[in-house]
Amino acid sequence: MLPDEIEICLGIISRYQNNHLGQTLEKEISIKLLEMYPTIPFIVASIKDENIRSKKAAFNAGYTYFEGNQYHFNRR
Fold first, then answer.
1. Residues 25-46: b if buried by 16+ CB within 10 A, e if exposed
2. CA end-to-end span of the chain
3. What radius of gyration do the chain's Cα atoms show?
4. Does pTM top 0.85 for this prediction?
5. In 3D, which of 15, 17, 14 has the Cα closest to residue 25?
6. Residues 2, 19: Cα–Cα separation, whole Å
7. In what order do the strands lie in the sheet with 6-8?
8. Model confidence over 46-74: pLDDT tens digits?
9. How many Å apart are CA 47 and CA 18, to the nearest integer?
């Protein structure tokens, strides 16, 4: 049975932060997941409102704001 939604959660340890690693991983993993699951229209990332750095990384990775604390990486 295939999932009807995929949610991504990513954390980068402090010594590897500020190198765009989170942004790159978030984008590449999301692209791969959409390739693996062709019926899934988007990937969900839930980001706390106060987590500005994660929101910036998500936007730079191609995610868009959806609602509440949810951001979507849409199939292109």
1. ebbebbbeebeebeebebbbbe
2. 24
3. 12
4. yes
5. 17
6. 34
7. 6-8, 42-46, 70-74, 64-67
8. 999 999 999 999 999 999 999 999 999 99
9. 18
